[in-house]
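Deliverable D5.2: sample structural annotation.
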Amino acid sequence: MSRWSPGVVAPAPGAVLDRVSRRDGRRVGAAAGSAGAEVRSGHAEWLDAVRGVAVLLVVLYHATIALAVLDLEPPRWLDAVVDGLAPLRVPVLVLLSGLLLPRSLRKPAGTHLWGKLRLIGWPWLVWTAVTASVLALGSRVAGDGRFDLDRAVSSALDPRAHTWYLAHLLLFYGVALLLPERVRSALVVPLLLGAGVVDDELWRRAVLCAGCFLLGDWVARRRPQALSPSRPVTAAAAVTAVTCVVLAASGVEARYRPWSVAGVAATVVVLGAVARRWRSTRPVGLAASVGRQSLVYYTAHWAVVAVVANALALVGLADPVLAVAVMVVAGLAVPAVLVALRGHRPVGLLFALPARRRRQPALRVEPSAPVG
């Protein structure tokens, strides 16, 4: 597993058919066809839940590699879990974003671009600055002072810093605006396979993520029924996802490799099926709540984990599992507070620029009698 580096880390529900069980009269959701309709409408509870799980995996990864700040090693089982989930974390997030691309492109071009700039570009700028500040201040207060402001800024702008995902996503949405549907569809396979022949890790990541993004777009446009397959297909997807995790955990190179995309797609299918089947349960509801505010959790958790890691190092905590648990809880709790406070303008500006006000048509007043 990769070691910790301070600058490295790794967006009206559709019709759901219900039927009444003849045996006990309970309402049971019939998911066939509903998942695609929900994606097209832009309000898919299951998609939020899957996104929330992926964000949780990102927080777990960063908390685990942050053990290096405490000079601790994760236990082998935790190392294997993190390595096994490595091929799924961000590619799942990217594929889910691609599923929402057709809906976004139905908006006027200006509206599409402005929405992405204020909801993705602006948070990238803000949290890149926050990352640089945490590196510089943390190095002075709890570190060895080797991160001066210039080095902190360079590390925050490094393509391996956790905000890289926002920069890539902004680029994908922008370029997609220029590409006709046929071109976007034709690029899926070349991009996914092309990642396998790219030696540079960062370029390979960019190419494969672009392929996953356009794969999500293609599924949403051409094969939405694939999001709610039959039980046998869902079972096969579960086997595929587990196989991908086991192979990656056993040391097979899978992160941002073409073959791992099968595991990524299978994970979306399986977690989506689970979320729809148990959508009224508390775990699914909590995951969906994180997914709906995924931007807040993704951008804010890194600074929290970094600060807590240094604090735990100062107090001399020696239990790696407890340290990871504390960092994960803090990395979720602080963003949750920010979500609750997001309605306040100063907090809201950390995650989005204000929406442009729509011009209201001027009212013409026709007096019924002369005035004055």
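Annotation notes: The chain has one domain: 37-348. The first helix runs from residue 34 to 41.
The annotation will be released with the project's public dataset once the embargo ends.
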